[in-house]
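Attaching the record inline, Q. Sequence:
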Amino acid sequence: MPEFTRHIIANFDASLSSLRNDVLIMANLAEGNLQNAVNGLLKRDTDLCNIAIADDEEIDQLEKQVDKDGIDIMLRYQPVATDLRRVVSAMKLGSNLERVADQAVNIARRAKKLNQHPQLHESHDIEPMFRAASSILRDSLRAFTDDDIELALSLKKRDKALDAMNRQFINDATEEMAKHPEQIKGYLNLIFISRFLERVGDHATNIAEDAVWTVQAEDIRHTYNVEK
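Structure, as predicted:
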C-alpha cells in the first residue's frame, strides 16, 4: 500500500475514533443528567434538578461539535460503505443523546415543581421505570460500541415493556386524581415524568436500530419482530 494511502487511512481512523469518543462523552453526560433528574425527584433534592438542567448546555454544544466533525470527515475523506455508516450513525447517536438529555431536563423541571409540595407516594413508582429506561439506554450504547447485533435486537421487546409500565402508571395516577382532585397538578407532573422516561426508551431503541444499520446495512425500523 502506498505511503500516501496509508497516511489517509490512518488520519481517517483517528478522526473517526475522535468522533466516537465525543459521542461517548455525551453518553456519560446524558446518563448522569438523567440520574440527577430522577434522584432530584426521589430524594426531593432540588439542587440535583438544577444540576441536570445546567449541564444540558454542555451536551448541546457537544452535539453541535459532533455534527460539525462528522460533516468534516465526510467532506475530507469521502468514506463509503461501512465507514460512511459509522460516521452517519455517530452523528445520529449524538442527536438521540441530546434528546435523552432534553428528557432529563424535562424531568428535572417537573420534579422541582413537585418538590415544592408534600410528596405523593406514587413518586416512588417512577423508580422502576427509571431503572428500565436506564438499562435499555446503557445496553443500546453497549450494542453500538461493541457492534453487538444480538443485544441491539433484544431491546425492542424491553422498550415495549417500558411502554406498558408507562400506560399502567398513567392509569393508576388518573384514578388517584379522581380520588384526590386537590392533587391534580402533582399527579399531572408525575404523568409527564413517566412519559419522559418512556421517551428515553424510544431514543435508546433508535440507537440500537442504528447499531444494526451500521454493521449490517439493514434498516430495521418498524420491521423486526419484537419477540426477538
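The first helix runs from residue 3 to 42. The mean pLDDT is 93.

More tomorrow.
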